[in-house]
Amino acid sequence: MKTIKAFAPATVANVSCGFDVFGFAVEQPGDEVTLTLKKEPGVVVKKIEGDGGRLPLAPEKNTASVAVLAFLEAIDRKDEGVEIYLKKNLPLGSGMGSSAASAAAALVGINHLLGEPLQRKELLPFAMEAERVACGSAHADNVAPSLLGGFVLIRGYDPLDVVGIPTPEDLYCTLVHPHLELKTEDSRQVLRTSIPLKDAITQWGNIAGLVAGLMKPDFGLIGRSLKDVIAEPVRALLIPGFDEIKEKAVETGALGCGISGSGPTIFALSTERELASRTGKVIQQQFQKLKLESEVYVSKINTRGAKVV
Amino acid sequence: MKTIKAFAPATVANVSCGFDVFGFAVEQPGDEVTLTLKKEPGVVVKKIEGDGGRLPLAPEKNTASVAVLAFLEAIDRKDEGVEIYLKKNLPLGSGMGSSAASAAAALVGINHLLGEPLQRKELLPFAMEAERVACGSAHADNVAPSLLGGFVLIRGYDPLDVVGIPTPEDLYCTLVHPHLELKTEDSRQVLRTSIPLKDAITQWGNIAGLVAGLMKPDFGLIGRSLKDVIAEPVRALLIPGFDEIKEKAVETGALGCGISGSGPTIFALSTERELASRTGKVIQQQFQKLKLESEVYVSKINTRGAKVV
């Protein structure tokens, strides 16, 4: 009986100005998936821990098993028997790429168990399929960084074109997760399907600036580019006290601050771990004023992505 | 009597995916401006050559003099007497940044004549003022590269945030100017003021990809990113045979091909001078089939910008 455990990190999608095309991975938190090869064919989700009983065990609905099923079909090994044990450390509906992390860990695990038939990048379509099942859209801005690590640009979806963007040394991420839950699906629905050309121009200036800032690196430019005129103005309405939180984070010394993925988790980037920690405390205090509990996670940017542990 | 001559290069704005935020300069062609300090106060456009008598001599209407007037006002020397002689080598209404080149050359010239009171980057607002007068919008994606050289990102306009993007070695530009004239103002009017979010996402994936491609450098990525789903589909209708031209340019070996600024000039980028020349011939042949005369310019990317000659 072969068994293996894999870890995949939380991710920040959008990164303010890169809606649907940009994301990065953090060191912690992350999901753990244990996979065991069995004699009996079929993929089974044996147990899920940490989800409060809310995630589906049905293999065609759980993101980890959906990803594994898509992978097995692609490598023509549908008859494999796989038992999945999923340990959720990421809160659901948090905007930290919870569904993506489970799928990424499961894929890295099963690929390893079966002797690495595919390259890391080749696992992406199966993780995207899991995203489609989990939240209705096969976006890659969480699964790509969770699988590959670092900052990842999805240059295009048709065909899929994934570009790793070098991560500057000394870049730290603060994540603050308030005890509110937003479904990605709902959070996408508040967005307009048509936007002013003027706002689009602002946004593509900023995403280009963010990529240039990361690559130079130029932390001032990174900070100036961390602006979102598309999703944030609408989604911020779902997060109590957002504008003040952002202001305080930047006052504390963070380069920038925004909504992680579709929220409600807040992310901030800082050039020192100590600044990132202080920013976390300041944001948490803001939520406390509104009687909202929250967790704070501080970590370096994860440049390796999901891994076998 | 102090006199000086300055040159400023043609520029390609938009560069397919960077509408209003991205541009680059070429070595040739460019405009030449000769400035002479006079005793009598006031800015005078003495003579313009190469415009077929079509550009205004009135100082408040000509881009070179508008830029000089704005500069003199800013440095509090409105009483200077300046005589301007403008030699246009850039065709008007061509999409090669004709108005920008005249303004940039005039500014570099007057700044030099008066002992360099301002840094190169500080000249930008005056050149933008000239653009506003020339075509109704104070866009910086021609004036910034014409002044500064290389690829330039206008990260934002409020406040103005101009970012130089490193230029890879061995990048050549082909410009083919068909004898058609489009006014920037008209060419802007065909654009919609509202665009589908889906298209905006495609565009910001591409501009981020183009910046990453230039900085890595990764010529394949540059080529894949040179796509425009916003302005090109509309503006291409004003350029006969555009789709086939583009196809042929890429077949010939160009990394990508698009409309320079608001057109009708076509630009292509190639990794070898010989490829860039061949691409120029192929595009010219396509225009010939439609009985359209054209000029071809092939040059390296200009990384220094406007200069005193």
TrEMBL record, chains A, B:
EC number(s) on record?
A: 2.7.1.39
Annotated residues that bind ATP are located at 91-101
The UniProt record lists the keyword ATP-binding: yes
Keywords, ordered alphabetically = Amino-acid biosynthesis, ATP-binding, Cytoplasm, Kinase, Nucleotide-binding, Threonine biosynthesis, Transferase
Q: A single GO CC term, please?
A: cytoplasm
User: Ranges for the GHMP kinase C-terminal domain?
Assistant: 211-278
Q: Is Nucleus among this UniProt entry's keywords?
A: no
Q: Which PROSITE patterns match?
A: GHMP_KINASES_ATP
Question: Domain of life of the organism in this record?
Answer: Bacteria
Domain named GHMP kinase N-terminal: which ranges?
Answer: 65-150
Name the enzyme's class: transferase
Pathway listed: Amino-acid biosynthesis; L-threonine biosynthesis; L-threonine from L-aspartate: step 4/5
Location of the protein in the cell: Cytoplasm
| InterPro entries recorded | GHMP_kinase_C_dom (IPR013750), GHMP_kinase_C_sf (IPR036554), GHMP_kinase_N_dom (IPR006204), GHMP_knse_ATP-bd_CS (IPR006203), Homoserine_kinase (IPR000870), Ribosomal_Su5_D2-typ_SF (IPR020568), Ribsml_uS5_D2-typ_fold_subgr (IPR014721)
| Task performed by this protein | Catalyzes the ATP-dependent phosphorylation of L-homoserine to L-homoserine phosphate.
| Family indicated by similarity | Belongs to the GHMP kinase family. Homoserine kinase subfamily.
Q: Return the protein name.
A: Homoserine kinase
